[in-house]
Amino acid sequence: MSAGYADDMDSLPVFYIGQHESKRALDVSAELVHHAQDLGYDMLSSPITNDHFHTRVLGLLRSYTHAASSAAQPLPLPLIAALESLDTPLGPAETISQLVTYSSSWIDLSSPDPVIAHLSRQVLHLEVAYASFCGAVNMVVPGPRLSHGQNGVAQYARALKEAMSTGAYVQFHILMPVDGTKTAVDDQEELGDLKRFARPEFGAQQNSSTDVWSSWEAWNTIRSICKYHSRLSLALELPRKLPSLAIQARWFSEPVRLVTIPSASFLVNARGSFVLSKAHQWFLFRFARLRSSPWLLLSDIGPLPGIDDPDMIMSYSTGHLSPSTAEDADPSAEPTPAEAAQLKKKAAKVSSSGSGGSGGGSSSSDPTPHLSYLRYLQRNQPPKSQIERFGGGFQDYLQSPLQPLSDNLESITYEVFEKDPIKYAWYERATAQALKDWHSQKKSTSSDNGAVVVAVVGSGRGPLVTRALNASASSGVPVKVYAIEKNPNAYVLLQRRNMDTWGGRVTVVKTDMRAWKGPSQPDGTFGKVDILISELLGSFADNELSPECLDGVQHVLNTEHGISIPSSYTAHFTPLATPKLWADIHGRSTSVDPNAFDIPWVVMLSQFDYLSTTTTAETSASQQLTNGTKMNHFNLEAPLAPIVRTAWEFSHPLPPSVLTQSALRRGGSAVGGGGGFIGGDGANEHNYRDCRISFPIREQGVCHGLGGYFETVLYSGSEGPVELSTNPVTMDAKSKDMISWFPIFFPLKTPMHLPAGSEVEVSMWRQTDDRKVWYEWLVESFMTVNGQRIGLGVSDLHSSKSSGCLM
User: 250: phi > 0 → left, psi -120 to 50 → alpha, else beta; which?
Assistant: First the structure.
């Protein structure tokens, strides 16, 4: 990795910040865009149509209503004439790509009144068509009116789907409030809102009761009807007070492209500066770490300063603020409606009359105080974690699991593994402990000179060989080391390292470990190995055939005292909401690989939500919002602790009787039984596993698949266990900052809706037919009602047999 590339990976995310006015006084011209850029903004918003068009539509509605009231027969629905020049401030221009266009907030696509709904559809159609013609690529569409309940959401989604076919190159961002009980600023009813003109007979369908999940539930319906379309995303509006961490975590898993921050969401600190609460800071920081982080739109903070004053001294907002200016404010100080109105006036006054730079002054001397504060947040983000630095660019990137038995890995693949700062150090600790225990317990060795015989099977480029030699030096226990590797290319490098680095102390053998007969003796016989060291684990522990490989080489292990490092490993999983991954896999299944949903994918999970979480255990991410943690020390991990269950376990070495029975079955002898259940002789069926595990679901959600992890005990002796873990519950305690393994993801072909208080039951099988190993999985959901357990749904039975690991 070049130095420049490394610096880029370590750099903190950049905030792309725009300015939005719901009632912008001036049309957005190229000059206005350049002026905003001079202030430090990256983009501006612009309405597609204006008040002239709004007035024209209201006039049409009044005329229609009057005519319909006296008509003897039903009238056809009213038609809006084509857009005219006076109806829109927008036009094709070089700056169009720097604009976020807004469709009209006064329409009501989900209205139960067919006249209002029809007019709203026409308005959206006209606006989308014209914006698309002008070259606009980003459009914000107000979400469905939550006061209608869920009744009109399907109608809204159908209208949106039509609009998406009209604007074939437009990205649609649906404006939704984070909290379903709050109304988005642009969705608040005004005098000209079409919702006000719905006829009384259609008012009976209104349902004004909402909860915090209403907004997410409506969004889930919309994106499901639109089949997770790649041009459909979210524009989230932050309220002054954020809802529960559970709903925040859910929004984090969704395709959020814009986050709008209204002026009312800012607090005022003791210095009189506009700041955000710690909860808002953490919310924005967490979104900024996504592979495609959302843009930020400052909404209704006042007009751009300096427009009417060409002599005003302006400076670019850099985010360099004094500690007192950026000091946190008391989030419990909720403003009264009158105080909120005064805050808006103050914001407008500051923007129009402020002067000077955006340096260390208070808001009163800063022409763009809200922007300066967001730039301050950008400069004070928490540093990237070890895994973020290592996996930069790989977030939510789907990778097929390795096939190390059937494929010879490239040098660069080995090099990536070897960058892990934890794994090999822990292997060295485990080997050193095993050697010290061997010596202290006065065990006999398999060598003629008392040295402990160590074999690194599947040596790759030799990192574990180096660690075994280091362990011998630190423990003072002599060793005789063998490096076993089948890859002919890695074998060349091992020989070179033995000469150049290891001083000829290692015996390098090129063979499949299962075919190795053991250390060659002077009399032509083969000896035994005292300690077998391997790094054959995959993301789900056994998915790269570690059990099969270690079974095949166990015949060389000292039968009395032999040690395997690792000595055991367990596979774990938990249900996940991963809309982005599901959409990516769905795209592959329709265009590249029809079996994409039957592949367990290795992926650095980033944009996801745990569906099954504990009810009591607070994580450091949730505690830090109230314990005084500074923003640049925030933990940006998931705020709720997941429930992760164990699927199965493998231990090494196996009891000899198990391998004896396996040998009897191999070849199809009569005493070996009637063959395998699903083909073959059944010689590998001792490595078959299955499980059926349930998970409680606290909040409603959609399951897109299962996140898989593993834990392993490398060695457990007199000094306690040495363990590695990718399980999110235990990884920090067992192997924090380990980067060698990403989780594995078992997708579902059809997302499964899970009501709050329901239960998910996962069935999984590790199958084998002596030629390959594969997984099968299915998910069921249940709800207990009045003491009776009722089945709600069951997924397809998925099988990775077509892409299974070849033995």
Answer: alpha
Predicted confidence at residue 43, as pLDDT, reads 95
Residues 553/457, Cβ–Cβ less than 8 Å: yes
Report DSSP letters for 409-435, one per residue.
PPHHHHHHHHT-TTHHHHHHHHHHHHH
Residue corresponding to tokens 């492209």: 257
Residue in the structure block whose two tokens are 């005990």: 713
DSSP 350: H
CA separation for the pair 473, 487 (Å, rounded): 28
Residue corresponding to tokens 């209104």: 206
Summarize pLDDT for 575-587 with one digit per residue, the tens.
999 999 999 999 9
> Where do runs of H (alpha helix) occur along 558-699?
579-591, 620-623, 656-665
Asked if 210 and 216 touch (Cβ cutoff 8 Å), the reply is no
- Give the Cα separation of 751 and 578 in Å (integer): 10
Predicted confidence band at 147 (pLDDT cuts at 50, 70, 90)?
confident
Sign of CA dihedral 743, 747, 751, 755: negative
Strand 452-457 and strand 479-485: pairing?
parallel
One DSSP character per residue, 685-731 reads GGG-EEEEEEEE--S-EEEEEEEEEEEEEEEEETTEEEEEE--TTTH
With CA atoms as reference, report the closest residue to 360 among 317, 329, 328, 330.
317
Beta bridge partners of 395: 604
**Region 408-430 average pLDDT:** 82
Radius of gyration of the chain (CA): 32
Cα 118 from chain centroid (whole Å): 38
Lowest mean pLDDT among 80-84, 227-231, 613-617, 688-692: 613-617
How far apart, in whole angstroms, are the C-alpha atoms of residue 793 and residue 334? Answer: 44
Spatial CA neighbour of 698 closest among 610, 761, 580: 610
- How does 148-161 read in b/e, with b if 16+ C-beta sit within 10 Å? bbeebbbbbbebbb
Cis peptide before 653 (omega within 30 of 0): yes
For the chain, the 3-state helix, strand and coil shares in percent, each to the nearest 5, are 35, 25, 40
Tokens of residue 471, six digits: 């362990």
CA–CA distance, 800 with 597 (Å, rounded to integer): 9
